[in-house]
Amino acid sequence: MVELASQQQGFLGVESAREEAGITVSYWESLEAIRAWKKEAEHTLAQERGKREWYHCYATRIARVERDYTFHKP
Fold first, then answer.
1. 60 lies in a domain?
2. How many separate domains does the chain show?
3. Does 67 map to a domain?
4. Count of H-run helices and E-run strands, the chain
């Protein structure tokens, strides 16, 4: 899905973590870009498959990032 998402208008990037649970955060330039991604046919099929086969529950949050700071130890 990341490869497909990266081809969509307004896609900015993705971060993902997998251990006991998985989390993926995708970044988009606008609410319109998010809506278009939600309607993308292959993405919709993947969501339905996830509901049927993999996930007991999940949450979707749409939020605006106002600032982003990064620290790297030298």
1. no
2. 1
3. no
4. 3, 2
Q: Do residues 25 and 31 lie in contact, with contact meaning Cβ atoms separated by under 8 Å?
A: no
User: Which phi and psi (to 5°) does residue 8 adopt?
Assistant: -85, 145
Each residue's pLDDT tens digit, 29-65 = 999 999 999 999 999 999 899 899 988 888 899 999 9
Would you say 23 and 61 are in contact if contact means Cβ atoms under 8 Å apart? no
Residue 18 lies in a domain: yes
C-alpha dihedral over 23, 28, 32, 36, to 10 degrees?
Answer: -60
- Are the beta carbons of 46 and 1 closer than 8 angstroms? yes
The SS3 call for residue 36 is helix
Angstrom distance (rounded) from CA 48 to CA 28: 22
